[in-house]
Amino acid sequence: MRTVDESPAALRLAAGMADPAARLEAAAALAKHWGASELIVFVRDAAIGRSLPAPGFPQTLRGARTWRDLVDAAIADGSGEGAVPDSTGELRRAVAVGAADGTAVVLIGESVADADWPLLRAILPLLGALFRAEAAAAYADVQARIAQQAASQSATLAAKLDATRAELQQALGVAETASRARDEFLATISHELRTPLTSIIGWIQLIGDAADPESLAEGLDTIERNARAQSRLIEDILDFSRINAGKLRLSVRPLDLADVIDAAIDVVRPAADAKGIRIDRVLDSEAGRISGDADRLQQVVWNLLSNAVKFTPRGGRVQVRLERVNSHCELAVSDTGEGISAEFLPYVFDRFSQADSSSTRAHMGLGLGLGIVRHLVELHGGTVQAFSPGEGHGATFAVHLPLLVAHHREGEGGVPRLELPAVRAFQEDYADLTGVTVMVVEDNDDSRKLLQTILGRAGADVRAAESVPVALRMLSGAWPDVIVSDIEMPGEDGYSFIRKVRLQEPATKHVPAIALTAYTRSVDRVRALAAGFQTHMSKPVEPAELVATVKSLIAGQRKASV
Fold it and tell me: 166-245 has which CATH code?
């Protein structure tokens, strides 16, 4: 038991905590005064109504709930005793003394004998007043700076208002023009997305009454074709958004452009065959290698070929030519189609530009494809040009890309053939998920059933939940091997769900999780990973890709546990 004679020394040490620079040193000395190795002061935060570590003390404590229970008990009962984890996770004896105003002192150490000291209780109100006053002063200082800044900004804005009236009028005109363009673009998007959706919904209803296999096959083919058309439209819109934000990135490596061209031709050929259009391939094997992103360059070639096929009448011809021109290689896509008028030719690469944008136009589209082509080519250090003798005389699009200075070494592998994600075949071999338990959390009934079917066909034991509360109740019974969760759900989203999973899962088990969502921006991916997911997948998801991702996570988890 400490004596009254020691009160001045203890008070001096407590007063020493008023200096933020010497706070921890004074706290350590005060802890030693009572036979402890460490001392932490807690004060009530009026904003949240809970006692938190005072300013200058560690704000993040391991085993936060254990600390909170000890502090709350001390405030409620006057004192408390228990064990709290230190920074290494080792449990240490702790004694707490609290006051009704939410102030508490926690002493950590095996040699702390008793928590019921009148002197320590007498010091508590002083410490509480000290830290509350410090917080109030800091808050007042911040408010004063905000007020000064607001006053300065108000004066600056007032001075600028008189000088910007004409600019505001001009901006209003620009805004009205942009608003009209936006409305037209949204109307076009609505139409382009609804058109394939109409076929999808209609055929789904017809399939229910289809009795013959021929009608069923035709319906399924139509549904898949229109769904992939929708996916391509969405990809163009997302690419346009990335371009506007300056976030379109390339994965550059040496490659043979002929391989990329062949892959793009394979993708477009079914559409050309359906119209009886012949695609002539004239590729110079000595054109040389370039440095580029194979996926994005295939997107360039695919866009040019798709346009050529779309605007060429039945029985026409499309030629793809690749040759070396000095230090560049030139890719030219020519067609015998409708051609381009001299008036429209200068604007053919502008976004949303269409030679015929009326509601009666013969060819659908958003007018984004050629704008994306130009941006991708320029990112590769190249140029793209359009030529046409006029309407009814076909058109040629020429892409120039710089050749590699250093040639590819002998013995290195070639560039693999690529396929656009939007047009990949659905029939792919699934990985085997036999013996794997997967929890699917998805509020949309159709999507949830689709995921169950995909994973079930791969042999997985699928447990489906339509909401976060249902999923959490299911987890209380048994833990799955992998979690696949949507992000946007009513009531509670996927971010909240995965954070609760990470808090509740046993110390011996870390369940890998996939965020499956229509949010596809890079910031959404970062947010999903930060919340606790291991990977982020965009909707619509390819069945084989989903199964392969689950398989990969399981393999990684087992390897990590070895």
Answer: 1.10.287.130
